[in-house]
Design goal:
The complex is a heterodimer of chains A (about 110) and B (about 110).
Chain A: E1 4-7, E2 10-13, E3 19-25, E4 31-37, E5 44-51, E6 54-57, E7 64-66, E8 76-78, E9 87-95, E10 102-105, E11 109-113
Parallel strand pairs in A: 2-11
Antiparallel strand pairs in A: 1-3, 3-8, 4-5, 4-9, 5-6, 7-8, 9-10, 9-11
Chain B: E1 3-7, E2 10-14, E3 19-26, E4 30-38, E5 45-50, E6 56-59, E7 62-66, E8 70-75, E9 84-92, E10 103-104, E11 108-113
The chains are: A mainly beta (about 110), B mainly beta (about 110).
Chain lengths: ~110, ~110
């Protein structure tokens, strides 16, 4: 089955720790995105990558880092510098084939800081 | 600054009671407007992409329309399984690049009672 997988589904972090969220896709999409979702707010873009070995900051990149060493993988690290990391994190990949433009989302990772 | 506002925040309908959700947007140039459905604790599920004013798309009981300032998601004869949060997003024109960056609204939470 083609799709986007995120792991883990739930993640608990102690203050001061860095944690890495996994995102893998087998859709052969070039572009991938990380969003953060907080209650009552829309999704906000953290980082995005349009091609392997290249990525750009989104609107709320402070306290986060990413890498894009493989087309299929776009891991997100939440560092200790992120002031309020408790949120629902969503990864997406994008296709523009067939004249359309669509981002497909993974199931999400819920991060809780203890 | 690109902005998306959805209304109402919450909507309760009886099964079979048709209604519409609104998405108002401000964007310098519209590349596309997107509708997603999100169930609690899950990633958004793609519904529609609209590209130009006057465009309409349908899927089962859902119909999306687009004007130069807003989009409507019409729900005809809803069923309890249509209960979810519906998200609207826009992709604007940023120079000559096509980054795929989406700006999301806060969402409308729909509850359909049997």
């Amino acid at each position: 089955d083609g799709g986007i997988t995120q792991s883990p589904k739930y993640l608990f972090r102690k203050e001061g720790q860095n944690v890495t969220l996994s995102c893998e896709q087998n859709l052969n999409h070039d572009a991938m995105y990380w969003y953060r979702q907080d209650p009552g707010q829309g999704l906000r873009l953290i980082y995005y990558s349009q091609i392997v070995n290249d990525f750009q900051k989104g609107d709320i990149a402070e306290g986060y880092s990413v890498s894009r060493e493989k087309k299929e993988s776009f891991p997100l690290t939440v560092t200790s510098a992120q002031k309020n990391p408790t949120a629902f994190y969503l990864c997406a990949s994008r296709t523009t084939s067939g004249g359309g433009d669509t981002q497909y989302f993974g199931p999400g990772t819920r991060l809780t800081v203890l | 600054e690109d902005q998306v506002t959805q209304s109402p925040e919450a909507l309760r309908l009886q099964e079979g009671e048709s209604s519409s959700l609104n998405c108002s947007y401000t964007v310098s140039g519209l590349r596309g407007l997107f509708w997603y459905r999100q169930d609690p604790g899950k990633g958004p599920e793609f519904l529609f992409t609209l590209y130009s004013a006057g465009e309409e798309k349908e899927k089962e009981r859902l119909k999306a329309t687009l004007t130069k300032k807003e989009s409507f998601l019409h729900i005809t004869a809803p069923k309890p399984e249509d209960s979810a949060t519906y998200l609207c997003a826009v992709q604007g024109v940023v120079g000559s690049s096509n980054t795929g960056k989406l700006i999301f609204g806060q969402g409308t939470t729909l509850q359909v009672k049997p």
